[in-house]
Amino acid sequence: MTGRAAILGLGRRGTRWAEACQKAGWEVVGFDPDDRAGRTLAGDKTWHREQTISGTVKGVDWVICCLPERLELMRTVVRRAQAAAPEGAMIAVASRTFDIDAIQGCSIRPSRVFRVTEDDDGALTLDLNAQNPEDMRNLVKETFSGLAAVLSLSPASGSEVAPLGQSKEA
Hints:
This protein is of the alpha/beta class.
């Protein structure tokens, strides 16, 4: 599956996600308030940088938020991204600290928000809940399985959140 992804936060995690999306054949647009962030990304036709969140998420299919672990910042960015992105855009929030309920609690369209966690061993875990309808769960599973293959990641086992593509019970 290919698409257009916005990466919000171009530090180490954001750069890794941007590179994975590029390798998967996606067009990638990124934003970070620090001009030094994301400098290692290739400047070819599949990548460009925007100066605002709204400019970054315009016309994308997926938004991947790779922000500092501050809940109010995450909530503000998710709201701003959903306000400017197409109504059908999916929002993935990379967070090890906050669960999906805390992240979705502020969103405009909570059914389109989920959490993704990459552990120290590279295992990828998706955190979905009852607010994510089955068709969206399947879309997230399919899309992130493809990205996990590009990243050479595998689902985490023994986690409280569901392994790749499965939903957490509400």
